[in-house]
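Q: Please design a sequence for this.
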């Protein structure tokens, strides 16, 4: 497992020393903690401090605003659509890349990585050029009374684009490393393709899949750039939580802005906890497999 399993196992193993002196080690550790404190912890604490500056009553009142509630509902709706789509795509792409050989395989992997290299703002502009009023499909969409840009479909498309690689990129290295022996053995024993996938492939990749889903969901709920371009910032309709934070902040409604931002921060913290739990469970599962194999290897 590239992210959840392999990385955790590698990180948990004791590493040999490389000969740095104690002052150098202390300096490196101190510098790391200082950077983490200034760049990550301090801004995070300030978000909650600003959100609660007006008291708990003002903080909770920020979430009773209809526009804030609409932004929360839209964010959850977009994530609920984008994440399953990326799960299906990630599993399909990983299965095809890891289990089959075909021309253009490396090109397909490169294309999956494309959202990592392209700015989210650029991806939003591309969708406007395709589905906007003056875009490639704009006249056809208008003729059929369909609206993609400045509407929920455009937000969903932009979110799917920026979260495209997260599931696939977790699964591909793991499935390539696992090979096809177990699937071939299952099919030799008479299992169908679906049974092989459900009983052999899926259990072997479940932790990597869950890890990818967690990352995908976190990015889907927090995406700003691409969504900002295609949403139109229509309050109560196309404003997701990150956009709602910007709108409130520009209106000097700091308590409400930081209250919504604190909700996003809490979602991020929950994601980190879930990520840590998955890494720990994946490491424990890998260790159990290694322990189970040791007697066979010794014999």
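A: Design:
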């Amino acid at each position: 497992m590239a992210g959840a399993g392999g990385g955790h196992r590698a990180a948990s193993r004791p590493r040999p020393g490389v000969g740095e002196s104690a002052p150098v080690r202390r300096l490196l550790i101190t510098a790391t903690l200082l950077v983490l404190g200034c760049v990550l912890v301090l801004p995070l604490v300030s978000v909650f401090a600003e959100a609660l500056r007006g008291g708990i009553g003002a903080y909770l009142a920020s979430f009773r605003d209809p526009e804030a509630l609409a932004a929360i509902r839209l964010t959850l709706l977009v994530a609920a659509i984008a994440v399953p789509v990326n799960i299906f795509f990630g599993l399909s792409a990983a299965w095809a890349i890891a289990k089959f050989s075909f021309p253009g395989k490396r090109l397909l992997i490169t294309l999956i990585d494309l959202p990592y290299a392209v700015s989210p703002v650029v991806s939003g502009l591309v969708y406007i050029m395709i589905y906007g009023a003056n875009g490639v499909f704009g006249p056809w969409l208008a003729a059929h009374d369909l609206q993609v840009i400045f509407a929920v479909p455009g937000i969903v498309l932009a979110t799917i684009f920026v979260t495209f690689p997260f599931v696939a990129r977790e699964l591909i290295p793991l499935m390539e490393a696992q090979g096809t022996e177990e699937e071939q053995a299952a099919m030799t024993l008479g299992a169908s393709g679906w049974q092989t996938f459900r009983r052999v492939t899926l259990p072997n990749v479940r932790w990597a899949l869950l890890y990818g889903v967690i990352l995908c969901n976190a990015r889907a709920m927090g995406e700003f750039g691409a969504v900002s371009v295609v949403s139109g910032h229509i309050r109560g309709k196309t404003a997701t939580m990150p956009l709602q934070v910007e709108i409130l902040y520009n209106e000097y409604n700091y308590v409400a802005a930081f209250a919504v931002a604190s909700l996003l921060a809490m979602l991020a913290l929950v994601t980190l906890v879930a990520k840590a739990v998955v890494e720990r469970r994946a490491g424990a599962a890998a260790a159990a497999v290694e322990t189970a194999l040791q007697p066979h290897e010794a014999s």
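Q: Thanks. Anything notable?
A: The two ends are 27 Å apart (CA to CA). The CA atoms of residues 115 and 161 lie 7 Å apart.
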